[in-house]
Amino acid sequence: MNIFTLKALGLWPKNDELYKFNLYSLYTAVSIIIINGAIFFQVMYIVHVHLNLEDLIDSIFITIAQILASIKMCLFMRNVRILKQLMVTLKSDYFKVRTIRQRELIQPALSIWKTTYVTFWILVNTTIVLWAILPLFNKEKDLPFKALFPYDTTASPIYEITYLHQVIGIFLCAMASLNIDIFMAALMMIVGAQCDLLCDD
User: Fold this and answer.
1) SS3 143
2) pLDDT tens-place string over residues 187-196
3) How many other CB atoms sit within 10 Å of the CB of residue 120?
């Protein structure tokens, strides 16, 4: 599920390929533009209200988290070749489970990782849904996140398009951050499991 989601986000090119000039790379670029576009307008809002402490605090915490997630995505994409080589190495005979006892040794770590993934996936998606629907309960035409746009966001259909852009942007950003973190946790789990298998051997 983790690798599938990374592929869906444009962060894991097919098979042993890397980023080339193809449709998948175009899809990745569009995904990154959507995420960073949403972040850009939020940063512009922070610059605009930097003297108003309340508005600054309201918007800075989520914007900083999104910026860090965007940096994390770029670093992940930059190192995807190393990660794919590591995955190929881990599938080699040296690292395979040899006995039923060894399978039982690594099963608890695998279960913990799966539980962690599902738990964080539920929490992240619940948070995104709540952020997305909360402004709908206000009488004013509020957006999910405060941002400064060069156009009037209260006019229809501009409001709906901007609203959708922010929701899609935060969804893609959160899913990318979640799946990169969980992927790294999986690698750490594999390192621990391999140490157990080495001791058993």
Assistant:
1) coil
2) 888 888 888 8
3) 15
pLDDT at 56: 84
Sign of CA dihedral 77, 71, 90, 2: negative
* Burial of residue 179 (number of CB atoms within 10 Å: 0-12, 13-18, 19+): buried
Q: For the chain, how big is the Rg over CA atoms in Å?
A: 21
Whole-number average pLDDT of the chain: 89
What predicted TM-score, i.e. pTM, was given to this entire model? Answer: 0.86
CA distance 189 to 201: 18
pLDDT band of residue 126 (cuts 50, 70, 90) is very high
Query: What is the rounded CA–CA span in Å between residue 86 and residue 90?
Result: 6
Task: Provide DSSP, 165-178.
Answer: HHHHHHHHHHHHHH
At residue 77's C-alpha, the angle toward residues 39 and 168, to 5°, is: 35
State residue 142's pLDDT score: 86
Pick the closest to residue 173 from 165, 163, 185 (CA basis): 165
Q: Is 15 left (phi over 0), alpha (psi -120 to 50) or beta?
A: left
Domain ranges of the chain: 1-199
